[in-house]
């Protein structure tokens, strides 16, 4: 697949697959979303440089249990996952910060990392480069091959010539609806070789109060993160959204077993999006849907994996059963 090389130096190479497609995709996605009856903006546009930084802050908040719980699981699961992996690529989809992958790299230090390469895949070029540079300072023998791409459409851009551990952590899979989940898992399965393994984090069903608190933090960081998507549209498509004209809204939809995040208009609003030659009208209290965060049962994970051509090989969870890290392999 054609790419643009944006960094090439000793131990670090970064390729981008977004230069040619990003402009087209954001125009298409925002036009489709803001002309729908339920207006929406796809959540992948949260993650510009500022959005990635805000999400890193969210992960440290006391209310935000997913990162803390997943990290506690990984602390015990990582040695078992890495025990049989001494050569190949650690591929991280939606890599963002490097907190979690460091646990897997630390588990391989006995081998000196001389036969292991880290392959982060992220839509944010700045976040990917920053995290990669930090890792290179910490691990002098590590090599990094970064890919700036949308992993939902660029799986074929990821090298597959060596054994791979493919990581999709942080419950990001919950951002897909049921059909998209199976399609995504099927896409990953279609790219896997028989000796590859897929490690995924799943946020499990739990009391509503704990779930809603995680998306309505008292410091307002999630609100700021949610509203930042409007800044992205302003910058990329010459729009005139004023984030202060919207309130952050997040709630657990029990019927659909998912958190929904919206931006709710505080008053009647008229928005001009010059790059789309589009005017958007929002009535007071009307919302723009920005994200879903699905919560799973183990039964649902097994069903999705099976439909996508995968099966669970290992399942790691915490004592409360709030979160799980699953190791998936291709079905026989």
| Order of SSEs | EEHHHEHEHEEHEHHEEEEEHEE
Strand count, sense and barrel status of the largest sheet are: 9 strands, mixed
What low-confidence regions span 5 or more consecutive residues with pLDDT below 50? none
Strand fraction:
25-35%
Q: What is the typical, i.e. mean, pLDDT?
A: 94
Number of helices: 9
Q: Strand order, biggest sheet? A: 1-2-5-4-3-6-7-14-13
At the first level of CATH, what is the class of the largest domain? Alpha Beta
- CATH architecture tag of the largest domain: 3-Layer(aba) Sandwich
Question: How many domain regions?
Answer: 2
Shape: globular
- Would you report the number of β strands? 14
What structural category do the secondary elements indicate?
alpha/beta
CATH superfamily of the largest domain: Vaccinia Virus protein VP39
CATH topology of the largest domain: Rossmann fold
Helix content: 25-40%
End-to-end CA span: 29 Å
Radius of gyration: 20 Å
Give an overview in words.
The chain is of the alpha/beta class. The protein folds into 2 domains: 4-21 and 65-207 and 296-330, Rossmann fold, CATH 3.40.50; 39-56 and 211-294, no CATH class. The protein is built from 9 helices and 14 strands. It has helices at residues 22-34, 49-58, 65-82, 99-106, 125-138, 178-191, 208-214, 221-237, 298-307, and strands spanning 4-9, 12-16, 88-93, 116-122, 143-148, 164-168, 197-203, 246-253, 258-265, 269-273, 278-282, 287-294, 310-317, 323-330. The strands form 3 sheets. A 9-stranded mixed sheet has the order 1-2-5-4-3-6-7-14-13, sandwiched between helices. β13 (310-317) and β14 form a beta hairpin. It is globular.
């Amino acid at each position: 697949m054609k790419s643009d090389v944006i960094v090439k130096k000793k131990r670090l190479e970064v390729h981008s697959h977004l230069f040619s497609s990003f402009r087209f995709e954001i125009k298409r996605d925002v036009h489709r979303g803001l002309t729908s009856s339920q207006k929406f903006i796809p959540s992948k546009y949260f993650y510009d440089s500022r959005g990635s930084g805000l999400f890193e802050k969210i992960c440290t908040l006391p209310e935000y249990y997913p990162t803390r719980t997943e990290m506690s699981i990984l602390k015990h699961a990582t040695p078992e996952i890495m025990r049989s992996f001494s050569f190949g690529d650690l591929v991280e989809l939606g890599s963002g910060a490097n907190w979690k992958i460091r646990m897997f790299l630390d588990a391989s230090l006995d081998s000196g990392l001389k036969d292991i390469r880290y392959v982060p895949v992220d839509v944010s070029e700045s976040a990917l480069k920053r995290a990669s540079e930090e890792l290179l300072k910490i691990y002098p023998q590590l090599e990094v091959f970064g890919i700036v791409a949308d992993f939902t459409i660029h799986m074929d851009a990821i090298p597959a010539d060596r054994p791979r551990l493919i990581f999709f952590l942080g419950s990001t899979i919950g951002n897909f609806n049921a059909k998209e989940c199976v399609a995504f898992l099927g896409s990953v399965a279609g790219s896997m070789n028989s000796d590859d393994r897929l490690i995924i984090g799943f946020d499990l069903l739990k009391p509503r109060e704990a779930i809603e608190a995680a998306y309505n933090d008292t410091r307002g960081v999630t609100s700021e993160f949610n509203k930042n998507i409007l800044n992205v549209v302003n910058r990329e498509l010459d729009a005139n959204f004023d984030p202060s004209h919207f309130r952050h809204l997040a709630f657990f939809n029990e019927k659909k077993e998912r958190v929904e995040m919206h931006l709710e208009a505080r008053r009647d609003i008229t928005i001009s999006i010059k790059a789309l030659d589009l005017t958007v009208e929002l009535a007071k209290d009307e919302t723009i849907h920005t994200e879903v965060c699905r919560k799973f049962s183990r039964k649902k994970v097994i069903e999705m994996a099976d439909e996508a051509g995968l099966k669970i090989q290992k399942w790691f969870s915490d004592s409360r059963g709030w979160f799980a890290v699953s190791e998936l392999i291709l079905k026989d």
